[in-house]
Amino acid sequence: xxxxxxxxxxxxxxxxxxxxxxxxxxxxxxxxxxxxxxxxxxxxxxxxxxxxxxxxxxxxxxxxxxxxxxxxxxxxxxxxxxxxx
Length: 85
What we know:
This protein is an all-alpha fold. The chain has helices spanning about 10-25, 30-35, 40-50, 55-85. It has a domain at about 30-85.
């Protein structure tokens, strides 16, 4: 499985991520809300990392959409389970 860590990033990739994070002048809601509402900043970050890992744009967009949906479902289930305790 591919992974991304600061020591593994090439300079152009580091620059790309720094510029992306600098451009995001928004407050981030809780992760569950980011996934539920297709929060643009979250999507841009996820797509940037997938691009760095070598995924093509079309596959990456589909993967991010599915990942956000799955993550929302899992977090919602956990949230409900915590209410029951």
